[in-house]
Amino acid sequence: MSGEHQVDLTAMRREYIKGGLRRNDLTSEPLALFEHWLKQACEAQLSDPTAMCVATVDETGQPYQRIVLLKHFDQHGLVFYTNLGSRKAQQLKHNNKVSLHFPWYPLERQVCFLGVAEKLSPLEVLKYFHSRPKDSQIAAWASHQSSRISTRGILEGKFLELKQKFKNGEVPLPSFWGGFRVKFHSVEFWQGGANRLHDRFLYQKEGLGWNIERLAP
């Protein structure tokens, strides 16, 4: 690409002025603050406020990232669902360490969880699977996630075939579909600040409680 058509990335900058994050704003444990921020992201009508970047590492040490939707959270962890034959699921089988990142840019906020992923029980998966729209259930059968396909038409054709097959009955849970609960031990909250003096607080699990430290931006 010639220089005259390049975007000048060095000139792209803005100030972060939506507010700070002070120690008095923090909760004693991270999930309460996360829930408060998530609620504000929903109220602000952000696109996909539950979208999170899930980072895993393969057997060679190569990191991979993808956007997945958070479907549940509580003191036991954060939950998402996926095809168990997918790249992320296979990587978690060999290395269950995972990072979850929530990029709420319009609010000048980020939250990052570090933890380990554990497979959900069949009962939990079944309950959620049947709560999904029927077309989403059928799509789970149609797509062998991360496998190579030559054209989109193959995927669409399989979907239509299965839609006809299950049109009058319940869609069974595929044996290759499941979910993970990420049990977290570290949570970082980032709030943009003026003059690049951003506010960062790190919660780290310590016994039955949490140690909280402010980090330099």
Automatic annotation (TrEMBL):
Record EC number: 1.4.3.5
Positions with a binding annotation for substrate: 13-16, 71, 128, 132, 136, 196-198
Domain Pyridoxine 5'-phosphate oxidase dimerisation C-terminal: 177-217
Recorded metabolic or biological pathway in which this protein acts: Cofactor metabolism; pyridoxal 5'-phosphate salvage; pyridoxal 5'-phosphate from pyridoxamine 5'-phosphate: step 1/1; Cofactor metabolism; pyridoxal 5'-phosphate salvage; pyridoxal 5'-phosphate from pyridoxine 5'-phosphate: step 1/1
Keyword tags: Flavoprotein, FMN, Oxidoreductase, Pyridoxine biosynthesis
Domain Pyridoxamine 5'-phosphate oxidase N-terminal as annotated: residue spans: 38-164
Cofactor note as given: Binds 1 FMN per subunit.
Pfam families for this protein: PNP_phzG_C (PF10590), PNPOx_N (PF01243)
Cofactor: FMN
Catalytic activity: pyridoxine 5'-phosphate + O2 = pyridoxal 5'-phosphate + H2O2; pyridoxamine 5'-phosphate + O2 + H2O = pyridoxal 5'-phosphate + H2O2 + NH4(+)
Top EC class, one word: oxidoreductase
Residues engaged in binding FMN: 66-71, 81-82, 87-88, 110, 145-146, 190, 200
Gene Ontology biological process terms in this record: pyridoxine biosynthetic process
Alphabetized GO MF terms: FMN binding; pyridoxamine phosphate oxidase activity
Record family assignment: Belongs to the pyridoxamine 5'-phosphate oxidase family.
UniProt subunit comment: Homodimer.
HAMAP family recorded: PdxH (MF_01629)
Function according to Swiss-Prot or TrEMBL: Catalyzes the oxidation of either pyridoxine 5'-phosphate (PNP) or pyridoxamine 5'-phosphate (PMP) into pyridoxal 5'-phosphate (PLP).
Protein name: Pyridoxine/pyridoxamine 5'-phosphate oxidase
Annotated gene: pdxH
